[in-house]
User: What shape does this take?
Amino acid sequence: MSSAAPRTTGQDHLWSVDEHLEDILTTVRPLEPIELQLLDAQGCVLVEDVTVPVSLPPFDNSSMDGYAVRVSDVAGASAEFPAVLAVVGDVAAGQAGLLHVGPGQAARIMTGAPLPSGAETVVPVEWTDGGLGEGPATGMRARSLAPEGAEGHVHVYRPAEARAHVRAKGSDVKSGDRALEAGTVLGPPQIALLAAIGRGTVRVRPRPRVVVMSTGSELVQPDEKLGSGQIYDSNSFALTAAARDAGAIAYRVGAVADDAETLRSTIEDQLVRADLLVTTGGVSVGAYDVVKEALSYVGDEDVPGSGIDFRKLAMQPGKPQGFGSIGPDHTPLLALPGNPVSSYVSFELFVRPAIRTLMGLDDLHRPRTRATLTARKALTSPKGRRQFLRGTYADGSVTPVGGAGSHLVAALAHADALIVVPEDVESVEPGSEVEVVLLG
Assistant: This one.
């Protein structure tokens, strides 16, 4: 990574939440499309419409196990006076060289099998004796167990209307129809449709690769023994999971100690597999805030604006933030504060929209709604700061969870919403209507 002046708009400038988000979204660009095999494309976004090359189903076929017959041959059939038809053979799914059903004839047909020529409808096997002469059948016997079932005669005890139990050619989609629109996220049903119409590959924007790392010499990995002054690293786990939830392929890097050169080296190593880098911790004004030390002068001197700009935002939690690009491919990097709640709230507001922009989605943000505040006392908020408080939302009401402290991980774990208190509001009374960001 080469050196350059840091991206900055003035150290004393206090950014609004909206200004910081706009800076991110005008910088980050969707990833270039690639052609992927169907299963590799799961979770990706289509970049072009998909047209149906062959109708689905491609031929008239039976929706039941039964007998393919002519309508006139079973008209008036009853238990007392069944229609007796000559069975000319079997029609199985995937079978070539179809039989012909003539007057007074029937063909034993299986679910999904093509309707033979001459046949006009399908009689379910339960409406017949199954060709065995033993009264109403309960199901179709296997050909190997009852070879006589495909020959001789069948008794039909009920009439059937034309095209009954027949799936018409093109009844699902027709040749030339648009199967899927550009912008569709490919989940299991969409992949099933693509396979059904014969598409083995599809052109999509790939899922972005997001590398998440925490900084801090005090951080210890779960399952390890805590020493004096140490805490477990939760941020990298939370944000890696959040990145995957947003649609990314996310990689978690173990916590990096408070050493600028080690951090720089780690980031350089990770650039090869990153479309987006996310760090937590080390962006405030402490003597050991190494992210600022390591990245303030990282960039490309030939690219205006390259490097990382560390800034203060008019929000709580999450006031210290960093954003810019690094490395030869100008990989975007978002530097988030280290307090668990601050980092998670920052992720939801800034990193999640960046990930979904890389994916090429139009729907970037969590849904928002209005809700009635249910609380025992008024909520207070610092003047000039947009505050995001954890809460639980249900049936048009939202209740705060925990306090305003940015270290309260347990409260965060029980929240499914963020209560938004605007910059110009210092107190919100119970019963007031508030804006809510829905997290789940």
In short: The first helix runs from residue 17 to 27. The two ends are 38 Å apart (CA to CA). DSSP finds eight helices and 31 strands in the chain. The first strand starts at residue 2 and ends at 3.
